[in-house]
Amino acid sequence: MKAQIVSALKRRRHGPVLTASKLLLASYILVAIAAPLIAPQNPYDPLQIYGWEASSPPGTRGSGGYLYLLGTDGLGRDIVSTILYGLRISLVVSIVSSALAALIGLTAGVSAAYFGKWVDIAIMRLVDLQLSLPTILIALIAIVTLGPGIDRIILALIIAQWATYARIARGVALSEANKPYMDAARLMRLPTSRIIFRHLLPNSIAPAVTLIPIEVGHAVALEATLSFLGLGVPIDKPSLGSAVANGFQYLLTGQYWISLFPGLALFGLIASINLVGEDVRRSLDPRNHSL
Amino acid sequence: MTVEHVTAPLLRVQNLGLRHVSGSATTPILSDVSFELGRGEILGIIGESGAGKSTVGNAILGLLSPEFQQTSGTIEFNGKAIDGMTADERQTLRGRRISAIFQDHTASLDPLMSVGAQVEETCLTLDSSLSKREARARAIDLLARVGIPEPERRYRNYPHQFSGGQRQRVVIAIALAGSPDIIIADEPTSALDATVQKQVLELLKILVDETGVSIILVTHDMGVISEITNRVLVMRKGQVVEADRTATILDQPRHDYTKKLLAAVPRLRIPTRTVKAEDDGGQAGSSAIDGDQNPLLVAEGLSKQFAPQGFAWGIGRGKPRFGLRDVGIRLPRGSITGIVGESGSGKTTFGRILAGLDTAPTGRITIGEHAFNVSRSGRRSGLLGRVQMIFQDPSVSLNPRMTIGETLDESIRFGGRTGSSKEPADLAAMMDRLGLPRSLLARHPHQLSGGQKQRVCIARALLARPEIIVADEPTSALDVSVQAEIVGLLKDTIAERAMTMVFISHDLAIVQAMCSSVFIFKDGRIEDFGPTEFIFSRSDNPYTRALINARPQRFTC
Lengths: 291, 557
What we know:
Chain A: Keywords: Cell membrane, Membrane, Transmembrane, Transmembrane helix, Transport. Chain A: It is found in: Cell membrane. Chain A: The chain crosses the membrane at residues 20-39, 91-115, 127-147, 153-174, 195-214, 256-277. Chain A: Belongs to the binding-protein-dependent transport system permease family. The complex is a heterodimer. By secondary structure, chain A is mainly alpha-helical. Chain A has a single domain (2-288), classed as MetI-like fold (Orthogonal Bundle). Helices cover 69% and strands 1% of the residues of chain A. Chain A is built from 13 helices and two strands, in the order αααββαααααααααα. Chain A has a two-stranded antiparallel sheet. In chain A, α2 crosses α13 (257-284), α4 runs parallel beside α7 and α7 (150-177) crosses α9 (192-204). The longest helix of chain A has 37 residues, at 79-115. Chain A is elongated. Among the domains of chain B are: 112-179, no CATH class; 283-386 and 467-479 and 487-557, P-loop containing nucleotide triphosphate hydrolases (Rossmann fold), CATH 3.40.50; 395-465, no CATH class. Chain B has helices spanning 53-61, 87-93, 105-108, 115-126, 132-145, 151-154, 164-176, 194-211, 222-228, 246-251, 256-264, 347-354, 378-381, 404-414, 427-433, 450-463, 480-496, 508-514, 532-537, 542-549; strands at 11-22, 25-37, 42-46, 68-77, 80-81, 98-101, 182-186, 214-219, 231-236, 239-245, 295-306, 321-332, 336-340, 362-367, 370-373, 387-390, 468-472, 500-505, 517-522, 525-531. In chain B, a hairpin with a 2-residue loop joins β4 and β5. In chain B, α5 (132-145) crosses α7 (164-176), α7 (164-176) packs parallel to α8 (194-211) and α14 runs parallel beside α16. The two termini of chain B are 24 Å apart. Classes of the chains: A mainly alpha, B alpha/beta. The A-B interface holds A 1, 179-181, 183-191, 194, 198-199, 202-203, 291 and B 352, 355-357, 378-379, 384-385, 387-389, 391-393, 396-402, 410-411, 414-415, 417-418, 446, 457, 460, 464.
């Protein structure tokens, strides 16, 4: 698997858009990691924020000696810093939730295929139920039930996303479970956990794993939507989505910068993740090359 | 029978060389292949997988993918070079002058179109002057010619309503639709049962005599070659190692590789019929019990039905099909028992029930003193693990994500908990015994050859120290030359350990070489059984005799 991913990354497809999105995504990740070092302000620290400088237009020089390059929001927070710190939250939430959703979904799908009968029925009807509702609705219901907080939003996104992985993994595992090597494993009377995790799971996950990069993009968008609706991250720790929401009420009064710049940042992030994710998915897809 | 080509041959391939280019890597596929094909001649091309025999056929048809590059030589049809033609020009030849039959009759036909419409469509495409009615008449005529009974009625049937042999006949009818000069038949009978294979080969021969078509028959099976071909091309690693008349190749092979191929064909010995001895066992019946006093395994009254799939609530569901009907068997300790039957005879189902992988609603299995309830899952009843299996296709019998070492280690650690043998399994000794180099332990299955993989599967089964091994067609997916080695190895290692084995096969000759007694399965029942000697020499069962007679005459003695 590891060798496959490495070789998939090595086979680079060239094209200006793809190269640009790779560069963009790389710089997003870089500035998100380095945010505390490069941001002019810590937007989460009330002591660094000057309320009387709220809604300053881009280019204003503040009393703290900062240059508000993209202006400040309604509470006086520097938009550049809000974007940098918001990026951290958006990326962490989406990557962690996608990885955990994949882990849980794959295990559930493979277990459903292996055990069959009522385990299969229970898991797959739940999957059907979830997939019959829009993802955003599931996430909304989950977050309303769970309450606010970064850990809660991760949980809500996992709940919203695991079902897709489960359905794909189950389909593959069903055909793998009938192969003779699985019969051989049964004949050894291996412990069930060993049959699932050593034999069935590693051979069933490839198609579902290729979904992860795309799902990270979905997760960013989902998180932003929830935060925009005010249901996601706490108000004092804005993610990109809540940063957009913060400026929404000021749009009509001409203070466009509060929403516009975080919105552009969000747009660039989702676009670059989707383009790069699609590329990674294609190179991982076993149908596109023989092993 | 052989047509001497006084005039120019119909097809002439000269010094054909091909290579495969993928990225920066180029692999030579064919080098210096030359042969001629006369009118009304059947030319066989034989070789093992990877010998390039199918590539020759595809090159003549112009069906090679662009990664194949011709490096040398010419292909001439009727004195005209066809290898340099454009795709459009090749298309006018295909079907009309040169057509093809492929191995997989299921994939060759459109499942959503009646067979008649498929034949008719081909007739219309190839001859646009035909009216719809004429095309239909022609299609019916073709179906009749390939031996489809009641062609007018069967015309409207769909491929799934035909048997495998009939489907291949339909494919042959489509190949004949354009009255071609040459038919390239790539393993046309490899997916068919022995008795059906013989009928299809006979049909091809009749068609050659009636229509004067020439056939290039690509196969890995010496038996097929010996049945109908006039001349043979023996290919190995992209080269023709020997080419001659079939009789000469079979009687006086010159090249070592040809000799090896011939020697590898399992031969059926039919002892001359002596005066029928007094009833020494062996009679048709639903339940068959050997006279052995102390059998290791006794299976009694195993029955199983398969409910056909349909829509919900049984709508559109046909009659249940019997997988097994009241099958009983006794395995004497330390013996090899053969189970022979054609596809669908229930032999594999029976093997899987013995191993505890499948259940049967009725019946009982006793191993030693212990009785097992076969209606419960093997894990519950404790049957699972007493019996190990060796499967048909070694390429899917090993976990592709585990190294050989991990696979065998698992067998040592987890297998053998229920076995009778107390001595610890010795991996190194087992590897040596099976001729597997130790360096393989760190490799993954895809890095091994088919024969090596099957040896690993044998090692895995033996290292688990079971009481009984069920081998389900263990050589069918292997090349002929490897088959003989695996059969020999299996027989010797089983004998050394005094183990008990059930050997499932469709090949009578291998069963004869391996087994002390034979059970012949047909439609889920035991049709005939007895000591091997008896079955092959004196059994009067008509089905047994038909199976024996379906073997190529050349390889029985």
